[in-house]
Amino acid sequence: MPSSYRNFRNSVPWLILSLEAVFIVLFYFVFPYDDKFIMSYPDVNLMMIFGFGFFLMSLKRYGFSTTGFNLLLIVLGVQSHLTVILSVLVLLLIEATVSMTAVVISTGAVLGKANPVQLILMTVLELIVFRMSRWMSNTFLLVTDSISMMHVHLFGAYFGLAVSACFSEPSPRTDKNARTPKSDLLSMLGTLFLWVFWPSFNSILSDRKWRVIYNTYFGLAVSAVTAFALSVLTTKDGKFRMTHIHSAVLAGGVAVGHAAHSIQYPWIAMVLGLLASGIAILGSYCSQGCLNPPLKLHDTSGVHFTFGMPAVLGALAQVILLIIKNWNNLPSMGYLVMIQVGAFCLTISVALITGLIAGLILNLRLFKSIPVSKYFEDQFYWEFPHLAVGF
């Protein structure tokens, strides 16, 4: 480890313990238990810790850091979100855990490049800003909680991309960020876990749970089938590619999430699933070949085409459905469309602007960004009994 680099013993433990001390004090004054606070343990917590923990494990030498830092950020982030709200709500723990989806998605964009101090600070900053974005949507645009929460994928993807733009690009000659059959298999395990629980995720805050669950399932099913078909059609040798399946099978659930409560016919959810899967696979070529190079942007886990683009599709679909539903009532249609477009623009604008500011802050000399030569290496953070050759 370079002598100029900050020793983690002098930074990470004290940052974590300081945050935990603040949480304990605030919980002492603000969060007494009562009957409203007692609730069932949310399934979404399993998605965050187990599903995303393995979903992001695609780098061959960054498995320890992916799962370990994912757990650390989630448990700190949930407590941080609760202190931001500073009130006791029936759905408090669920809302805090779902909000962590934005952080986990953003982490995927900077995975392997940001050190633990930067990740912890990014988590706290992003949760505060995401809560502020939702508050503005709820207060000024009168968007419901369940709808504003479904912007979590959109916010997380573009906040993470903005933060990633502030980090140095890895060398194009390095193979440390390459995939291996083992890392792809573990990553696919997380994808399958997320796929199974995604209907619960989309419906957790909705008052039309059965409709959201069915629409989400149909969207996921079609996106999975389409992913296999497009994977064969877009590879030179006509074989399935695991990275395509990994990227596209969740796209339908992301796209349907915005409008799942208002979709009255299953075929609409199925069409959205088909389009989302196509956008995820074809968008990966567009992002990696046309968009990322001129912007000097490196998206480690492909969150742009896995979550960002399908989320944009979902927001657009919500607007189209509102137009069709209110076609005979032009004044009402214009107002509803304006609200949805405003919420979308607000979310993506806040994500990009604050993500860029956060990225600039995280790259201050105070936080000591790791050298590019040490990107994507577990050994820089974790103790190994032997060298992690081929890990």
UniProtKB/TrEMBL annotation:
Example of a GO biological process term: ammonium homeostasis
Pfam families: Ammonium_transp
Gene3D superfamilies listed in its UniProt record: Ammonium transporter AmtB like domains
Membrane topology: Multi-pass membrane protein
Molecular function per GO: ammonium channel activity
Keywords: Membrane, Transmembrane, Transmembrane helix
A cellular-component GO term for this protein: plasma membrane
Domain of life: Eukaryota
Subcellular location, record wording: Membrane
Extent of the signal sequence: none
Keyword Cell membrane among UniProt keywords: no
Entries under PANTHER family matching the protein: AMMONIUM TRANSPORTER, BLOOD GROUP RH(CE) POLYPEPTIDE-RELATED
Protein name: Uncharacterized protein
Organism: Melopsittacus undulatus
